[in-house]
Amino acid sequence: MYTEKVMDHFQNPRNVGEIENASGVGTVGNAKCGDIMRIFLDIDENQIIRDVKFKTFGCGAAVATSSMATELVKGKSVQEAMTVTNKAVMEALDGLPPVKVHCSLLAEEAIHAALWDYAQKHGIEIQGLEKPKTDIGEEEEEEEY
User: Fold this and answer.
1) pLDDT digits over 67-77, tens only?
2) Is 59 marked active-site?
3) What is the CA radius of gyration of the chain?
4) Catalytic pick from 7, 33, 48, 88?
5) What's the angle, vertex CA 24, arms to CA 87 and CA 121, rounded to 5?
């Protein structure tokens, strides 16, 4: 059902925790399944993500997608982090069961929410970034298939 990479990121999640005085913090959830994901970003003066941490309350797939998403944005520029989509997270994990696709969508939205928070705090605009939704519902999931 789950790939080896999903199991590895669930059992040995990377970048768990919080960043004190984070440059940006994003929290998103899915009211239907109860998953909540919070991403913390430490971004330097050159807009490079120096560090990233996450706290996730949810199923194994939610933990695994959070872990993989943090790995995908660490060391990247803010603009490069914008290109991390739910599909990229799923591909990096060698796939997810269809019923767990929403977890990868949460990971993408949590990154965008943290980038939005960073942009708001610094009075900047990040190309392509829209105000994030805090609740990822069924209508978004349907569009992703």
Assistant:
1) 999 999 999 99
2) no
3) 14
4) 33
5) 130
* Angle separating helix axes 4-11 and 60-73, nearest 10 degrees: 90
d(CA 100, CA 145): 12
pTM given for the model: 0.90
Six token digits for residue 144: 């992703």
**DSSP characters for 22-67?**
-SEEEEEE-TTT--EEEEEEEE-TTSBEEEEEEEEES-HHHHHHHH
DSSP secondary structure code for residue 14 in this structure: S
CB-CB contact of 110 with 91 (8 Å): no
CB–CB of 35/59 below 8 Å? Answer: yes
Work out whether the CA dihedral 96, 134, 59, 64 comes out positive or negative. Answer: positive
For 48, phi then psi, to 5°, come to: -105, 135
Catalytic residue among 19, 63, 103, 111: 103
Q: Both tokens of residue 118? A: 């960073």
| pLDDT surpasses 70 at 21 | yes
Please, are residues 109 and 36 in contact by the beta-carbon 8 Å criterion?
A: no
Question: What residue type is 80 in one-letter code?
Answer: E
Q: What is the pLDDT of residues 77-106, one digit of tens each?
A: 999 999 999 999 999 999 999 999 999 999
